[in-house]
């Protein structure tokens, strides 16, 4: 029965069954409160005409004035049909489903529900229970995704920095020492000549050699001092020595 109601093929049958039962009940209750009988008939007519919101309103009024199994049955049937016919928006549907289940379950629990109303009541309760389970499944929060482990970023390689070289300053300074030595030699040779010998060429060569050698030595030493020393590097210093008859240089290494 619940499957048939879910497909909507027996909704009309349930409606007619409830309406005919309501009329029979009204006929038997003719000697009771006329207002309760009138509201029962009006609710049955609304059910037959598929006016489910109006039926729910009439059933609620009857439950207020004439509480009992009949009123709760009519209220639950009205709300169940509103849900099955799509007359309830999605946001309100869970609440209306709960109200319909409560009304029909209360009508059953009283034990005074008419026998001809038991089958449609149980069928609608099965349909509403399945609908409630589907809503719970649909509204269940999605499982939280597992956090991804943090990405391991390898440290950036240090930029290549060529270590400063002192070969250039040493070569330039060494060339200056050689030129100075040659200048000293030419000076000695020029001085050993007699007063009548022409030594102007040697004197010019001596001047050029001494000036260029001194300039190269000074430039090499300056270059060496301005070049930073890498760690764990041997420090080398060259000290020239001059005398009237010779030229030499001392080499000092410091670790």
Write the layout of secondary structure elements.
Elements: H1 2-7, H2 11-28, H3 34-48, H4 52-65, H5 69-84, H6 93-109, H7 115-139, H8 167-191, H9 200-226, E1 235-243, E2 246-254
Antiparallel strand pairs: 1-2
Summarize this, please?
The protein is mainly α and 255 residues long. The protein has helices at 2-7, 11-28, 34-48, 52-65, 69-84, 93-109, 115-139, 167-191, 200-226, and strands spanning 235-243, 246-254. It has two domains: 2-139; 167-254.
Q: What is the assembly state of the chains in this entry?
A: single chain
Low-confidence stretches: 6-10
Overall SS class: mainly alpha
Number of domains: 2
**Could you give a short account of the major beta sheet?**
2 strands, antiparallel
- The Rg value, from CA coordinates, equals 58 Å
Note the run of SSEs as H and E: HHHHHHHHHEE
Termini Cα gap: 102 Å
Shape: rod-shaped
User: Numbering strands along the chain, what is their spatial order in the largest sheet?
Assistant: 1-2
Quick check: average pLDDT?
Answer: 75
Helix % is: 55-70%
State which percent range the strand residues make up: 5-15%
Number of helices: 9
Number of strands: 2
